[in-house]
Amino acid sequence: MRLDKFQYDDFRLIADLGPDRLHAVVERLRQLEVVPARPDKLHEAAVEALGDRQDAAEAIVREALMVYGWIRQNGLDALESQEFLSEAIKANCPDAEFERWQTVEEPFAELVALPILRLVAVATDLSYEYTNLWAGVRIITDIRPIFSQDATDIDGAVVSHSFRLRFENMDGRHELNIAMDESDIKELAKQCDRALRKAHTARTLMADRANVPTLIAGGSVDDEIA
Asked: Which of 16, 62, 106, 197 is the least buried, fewest Cβ under 10 Å from its Cβ?
């Protein structure tokens, strides 16, 4: 297990909190209902436990999810992951800083083992485990003139649209441009509205008929628990 500079800075921030404050975060997260949720749900709870330490709350959630993802991908148990993480931190810091980390090692391991953290990590992975990931979109509208035969005057104009989709995959960021007319845009708007309705219908049916709490990927916090 190797840590980059930003990850090491996160773990140093976590170690500086001390065991009591990290235990407080663990106990606050234990109080959450164990359902699939977005990472910001964990962050809100961590902020409540730490008071004004937004930076530390973000570091705790970010690195706990990273470690759980690493456990899941490599098929490790909790003890193995704790040993590998300890070795990685020790390789990146002086002895005094590593001793501070050892004081919070136990509560951090408890945090990673929480059922709510497992559900958030798996739900996040499943939400975005696709070949291509959405990176943004724009619909660009422009006016194209119709010139006279000798190109000395403008006889008319056409308003046209271009759908510019940005997406990412293992090869990096890409862009795709597709010409659209007004009927295409209206149909796209209809399909977007329909997709939102389908998502809420599916979530409600899963909750009401199967009694399975269901997360809408990227949905608002209010959408997380049905």
From this structure: 197
103, 15 contact by CB (below 8 A): yes
* One-letter identity of residue 83: E
Q: Is the pLDDT of residue 127 over 70?
A: yes
Q: What is the full DSSP assignment across 153-179?
A: SEEEEEEEEEEEEEEEETTEEEEEEEE
Instruction: Return all residues near 54 (Cβ < 8 A) that are at least 6 apart.
Output: 47
pLDDT in tens, 149-167: 999 999 999 999 999 999 8
SS3 211: coil
Residues 115, 84, 34: CA angle, nearest 5 degrees: 5
Q: First vs last Cα of the chain: how many Å apart? A: 38
Delimit the domains of the chain by residue range.
5-128, 130-180, 185-226
The contacts found for 181-187 with CB under 8 angstroms, 24 or more apart, are: 185/139, 185/161
| Residue indicated by tokens 């170690």 | 15
Q: For residue 204, give the nearest of 216, 220, 221 by alpha carbon.
A: 216
